[in-house]
């Protein structure tokens, strides 16, 4: 599920009439996700009315953020009355990957300071300290944060009214511009697919090269701010379609970070080893395949099993 009101749900939950109504109320902020999810719930409840339904929210992992991390510097009423704040996304992935990292290191996640880079057509960076999300790049919507495939990420907000006035664009057209025409696609003019942009850059396409540089630099800036917030870093993790498969992207993000104790062994990086840091590096650098489906299934089992006691399931 794309979003939950912070005052309403902070964890995966059994679906009730109230839960479903809340999902439907938030559809205007998640037009690609919530209506379809709500439809699925309606159909499931009609076909299997006695079986419990579970809503798993991608924002729930980030409900541990402190106020300074989630409050925007807007008039207070926009938060108090409309719930405008940083929610964060990719929580299911960040939670799963950080847990796997701790298992592979053989130490409790509660002892680690981790930065997780979920890089794909949608990308986000998450700071995880002692097992809890303490900051994340996506905010009120998945549009904000680092540069993505077709999304701009953070820009000067004054650009929008300026464009709207100059080109007579509606709010819907501005949303289309930011969400579907920007990012790697907008800068490169080639594609929203990192692989295509990388290939174009290799043939000398200047805008493609610039797009790849911007992509990495926005991530690096975010990583730097999170290291400051956590007071250091124990592990940097790459996941998602780009993070798991592009040695070029990982190398660009980690370039010249030796002063932080972070250095990549390019031989390990090129063969997608699980740990790609150099032998003497102080910071672990890991490549871990995400498995959001497994995390969702585990949450469903955790929530639903107690509700199935005494339930007779027909053979």
TrEMBL record:
GO terms for cellular component: cytoplasm. It is found in: Cytoplasm. The active site is at residue 58. It catalyses: acetate + ATP = acetyl phosphate + ADP. Mg(2+). Can also accept Mn(2+). The record marks 90, 151 as: Transition state stabilizer. Coiled coil: none annotated. CDD domains: ASKHA_NBD_AcK_PK. GO terms for molecular function: acetate kinase activity; ATP binding; magnesium ion binding. It is an enzyme of class 2 (transferase). Keywords: ATP-binding, Cytoplasm, Kinase, Magnesium, Metal-binding, Nucleotide-binding, Transferase. Its cofactor is Mg(2+); Mn(2+). Pathway: Metabolic intermediate biosynthesis; acetyl-CoA biosynthesis; acetyl-CoA from acetate: step 1/2. GO terms for biological process: acetate metabolic process; acetyl-CoA biosynthetic process. Catalyzes the formation of acetyl phosphate from acetate and ATP. Can also catalyze the reverse reaction. PANTHER family: ACETATE KINASE, ACETATE KINASE-RELATED. NCBIfam families: ackA, PRK12397.1. This is Acetate kinase. It comes from Salmonella enterica subsp. arizonae. The lineage of its organism: Bacteria, Pseudomonadati, Pseudomonadota, Gammaproteobacteria, Enterobacterales.
């Amino acid at each position: 599920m794309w979003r939950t009101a912070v005052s309403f749900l902070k964890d995966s939950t059994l679906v009730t009439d109230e839960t479903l109504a809340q999902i439907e109320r938030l559809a205007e902020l998640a037009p690609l996700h919530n209506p379809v999810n709500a439809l699925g719930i309606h159909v499931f409840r009609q076909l299997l009315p006695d079986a419990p339904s579970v809503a798993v929210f991608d924002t729930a992992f980030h409900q541990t953020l402190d106020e300074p991390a989630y409050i925007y510097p807007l008039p207070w009423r926009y938060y108090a009355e409309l719930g405008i704040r940083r929610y964060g996304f990719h929580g299911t992935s960040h939670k799963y990957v950080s847990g796997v990292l701790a298992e592979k290191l053989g130490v409790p996640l509660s002892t680690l300071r981790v930065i997780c880079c979920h890089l794909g057509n949608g990308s986000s960076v998450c700071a995880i300290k002692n097992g809890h999300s303490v900051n994340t790049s996506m905010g009120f919507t998945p549009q904000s944060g680092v540069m993505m495939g077709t999304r701009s990420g953070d820009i000067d907000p004054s650009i929008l009214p300026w464009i709207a006035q100059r080109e007579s664009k509606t709010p819907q057209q501005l949303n289309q511009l930011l969400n579907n025409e920007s990012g790697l696609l907008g800068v490169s003019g080639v594609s929203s697919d990192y692989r295509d942009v990388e290939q174009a850059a290799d043939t000398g396409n200047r805008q493609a090269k610039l797009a790849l540089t911007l992509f990495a630099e926005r991530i690096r800036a975010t990583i730097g701010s999170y290291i400051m917030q956590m007071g250091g870093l124990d592990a940097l993790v790459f996941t998602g379609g780009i993070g798991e498969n592009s040695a070029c992207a990982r190398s660009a993000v980690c370039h010249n970070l030796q002063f932080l104790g972070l250095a990549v062994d390019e031989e390990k990086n090129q063969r997608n080893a699980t740990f790609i840091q150099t032998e003497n590096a102080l910071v672990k650098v890991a490549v871990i395949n995400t498995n959001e489906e497994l995390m969702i299934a585990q949450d469903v089992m955790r929530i639903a099993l107690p509700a199935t006691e005494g339930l007779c399931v027909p053979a």
